[in-house]
Amino acid sequence: MLTVRYARQTRAFLSPPSAAASTTGAVFFFSSSTVQTIPFLPSYPFFPSFSSSPLTSNESQSEIHKDDVVHYFREWFMSRKKPLFDSIFEILRTQDDSAADSAISRLNLRLSETLVLDVLNYEKKDVLSCLRFFDWAGRQPGFHHTRATFNAIFRILSKAKLMSLMLDFLQNYMKQRYVHKVRYYNILVIGYAVAGKSETALQLFGRMRFMGVDLDAFSYHVLMNSLVEHGYFDVVETVAKEIRARGFQNEVTHSIMMKSFCKQNQLERGAEYLRGLAQDDRARLSGIAVGTLVDALCKDNQFERAALLVEEFQRMGLSSMEHAYGVWIRDLVKAGKLDGALEFLKDKQAIEGYVPDVFRYNMLICRLLRESRIEEVYDLLVDMKEREVLPDDVTMNAILCFLCKAGRMDIAMDLYDSRAEFGLSVNCMLYNYLINTLLGDVSIDEAYRLLRISIEEGYFPGEKTFSIIADALCRERKSTR
């Protein structure tokens, strides 16, 4: 049985799969840019094991059927799906209010803060359905929305730039005098803070203090973060003192303070603040605060200093440096230092067992694709799968782009045609890859079909892609299209 290392070392220099090869079931990934193939062997962990006879001396490559590969990718894509949550959103999208209420009630959900947060996070881009679920949950006996669930729905509305809807909600909420007074004001402060109305949030906070009531720890931090975001730095210091006086100070406080220093370009003060925390309050210093300063240093083009900072705090033995590592990798990639990012990743994985989140994997994969470094994309996908990192939309789009570059349009198109099954939302980059690759294979009708679908979905191809497909249609005397 061939090992993973041997498989990687014996990539053969072969041409793309011919018609004859496809009839025998031999599957290889071909990179037109490197003229190398990447054989998927049964022993390779990126694919499931297939029953096959032992390799003979004449068999340098193993045979894997296309359908098996498609099935494996589809299973990986489906692993991110949660059937219960899919059912909830299907009900919310397709049924009116009364029917939806009854249908969701029949699911016998055990409502809790955690469940509501998970549901809202699952499809947070579907703002209307999230609002309907939030409203339904709030009307169920025995359940009351918490500050965290209010904060979650406010952030969904804010990210969707539905500020008028959010402010209308807050105005209506202010009329509900039956709500417990302390909770009532906490929710209002959170809402206006997230909406970017920091002055209104401060006025409400002042009214609370006049009435002899106070914010809780969660609300204090939401308010403090909003003040930093909108440049009320003098007030930030005052709120931070209030937080410390009430014993609410924690790693979130430190992270927001670090953001405040960085926004004011007080990087030296930020570094001193971190070192002071490491000496006096190590248990409450997280990698998030370190990552904030690392990001600010990189934006100031101080990469060497940022690298030293990462290593300095890693040696101090912080409980969690994953966020700081992720920030460092992201900033290296954005600065065009891709090889440095990959070297850092491999080093931290080997020594500390570091597992990047899906966003870092996506960033590395997309940049490697752009540079046509196909084998390294393949290795990262293997690593991602082995470490059980669930793919998201960006990952799935990137995998189909990878298949295009590797010369396996048959697999890419099969997965594309099955996109509704695993909820793939195709992006503009993938449409460009698919259309350009089909044109290269002289599949003009199929390329034109994808062009029409992409335009219907609101994606207009790049100027180069559009020019190429127009020329191809003219050559085929299909200019009327």
From TrEMBL:
InterPro entries linked to this entry: PPR_P_subfamily, PPR_rpt, TPR-like_helical_dom_sf
UniProt keyword annotation of Mitochondrion present: no
Keywords for the protein's UniProt record, in alphabetical order: Repeat
Alphabetical list of Gene3D superfamilies matching this protein: Tetratricopeptide repeat domain (1.25.40.10)
Residue spans of the PPR repeats: 181-215, 216-250, 357-391, 392-426
Keyword Repeat (UniProt): yes
NCBIfam families xref list: PPR
Similarity field: Belongs to the PPR family. P subfamily.
Protein name (record): Pentatricopeptide repeat-containing protein, mitochondrial
Protein source organism: Sesamum radiatum (Black benniseed)
